[in-house]
Amino acid sequence: MAEFESKLPVPGVKNHVFEACHHVIKALRASDNNLDANLRKLLSDLESQLSTFGMVDTKVEDTGFSEIKERFKEAQKRILSWETKRSMIFEAGLSEADQFFQALYEVQTVIMGFNALPIKTNQEKDVYNQATVALDIGMLRLEKELCDVLYQHKQHVKPEYLDGSSRRKDIVYDESFVSLDDEVVVEASSSEDDERTLGIQNADLVDPLVVPHVKAIANAMFACEYDQAFREAFISVRREALGEYMVTLEMERLSCVDVLKMEWEDLNGAMRKWTRVFKIITQVYLASEKKLCEQILGDFESISTACFIEISKDTILSLLNFGEAVVLRSCQPEMLERFLSMYEVSAELLLDVDNLFPDETGVFLRMAFHELSRNLAGRTTATFLKFKDAIASNESSRAFPGGQIHHLTRYVMNYLKLLPEYADTLNLLLQNLEVDDSIPEKTGEDILPSTFSPMAKHLRSIATTLESSLNRKAQLYADESLKFIFLINNFHYMVQKVKGSELRYFFGDEWIKKHIARYQHDVTNYERSTWSSILSLLKDNNNSVATLREKCRLFALAFDDVYKNQTRWSVPDPELRDDIHISTSVKVVQSYRGFLGRNATRIGEKHIRYTCEDIENMLLDLFECLPSPRSLRSSRRR
Fold first, then answer.
1. pTM of the entire predicted model
2. Which CATH architecture has domain 172-204+249-392?
């Protein structure tokens, strides 16, 4: 549809200047009736020129009251004809709309003409009063039209990313660190990329076809000095539309008390939603709302800005208040990723907010937003440091069953796997915080700079804290061999998590090599503590037959004891378990085979409980975490 443009002038400084000029001309005419012809002509030409601006009808007296009255009656009739119509002017077509705006122009011209000249008769006064009533009716009709058009033609933003929900599971923290397992991190690999690729976008919040009509309404109401009515109606409708959109995004308004009382499960979801919604509202919706205000009120720049602020401030402040309320909560380790996401979004949106609210009228929103971003930065850093403290303070009163991978190890390493996604943010937040790091800084083509970034140093420091905790937990085992199995499992798990993820770019090859050597050393310690005394029985120095038979019997009893215990122990990683089986089998079976090879005939078959094949097969049962040992009779020779 073609653009509707009001023919009414925009009130302002020019209007007052022209009107003042008009009064000067009238005063000159009245001051001296003996003006010469040239001066009279000059004044008439000037008055005629002023009239072309549509400010006042300076020919009220010259053209005759009857002609003015006739023109007014026609305009009044057209305005009043729309008072009871239910259809919109917009729907009537360009010609009908143009005639309605022309009628407003005629009535406003009459009123301004009377305002510029003294009203002399009751008839003139009556026309003036009718004109003001007609103008009021016309303005009320435009105000209703404004609301109806904006309501009926509003459009909500529905970009594709609004439907994309992350498959990442929520992290739950307790003092046992039992919630974050490998399954969570596998699903976390489908990161919330949708939220990170949003960027500034403009959408049409109102059907573009009706924007020229709304602009024509704005021009008419401003020209007739009904700008306050327009602003109130426009702000009310657009603010309500934004509120409806927040409902669409399922972001409810929560008080500070509500946030402080929320259980973690609910708060976690609310923080995740806040991160997503704030980005959409700021970069898409408010950017589009500001564009709409400028399209409609671009001729009134300061008013356009004021309307935009009034439309958006309640929603912005409610989102900021939620963020500030979250900051007031205690910084539990499980909140780290949520705080990181919230801080990243706040930092990313700082420039957008500055551009949305650049003037003094929006300074309070800019200041509040920058303050929240600073508070989120501080809370994120504090939560990160508390995570390390929580690891250090995690103590156990009893040994972990079966020497398995401790919940603490799983939790910490899987949590660390989530952090490379936030590397830039963590490097910024941690750059001024010193930390002990056992890995010396090196240079060379093979050394990645990320290995010595602030984040890398802190991650390795957290791993060191975890290692110290594991060493303390290992001391709870009464069985020396099981202590080493526990350390082997946990250190191997740490290495595998680093090697198999982006953590390797932060921990570095030096760390990996050092910790592989660590658990391999523990394998050696396990073998020594478990088998050294047993294999010492297989040494023979020209022993008597009785002694050899006793050694063979004691070896079988000792092996039974190891089998009974260590089949209940666990080495979950199959490759690690195979490596220990092979290493153990080489030492044990080789020693046993040599012992039997030298002494089998002297000992006698009936005194040999196990063959070498029996021992080799039974060693494969170790570390399978069986509820009870398999029957040994199937492997025993009768």
1. 0.77
2. Up-down Bundle (1.20)
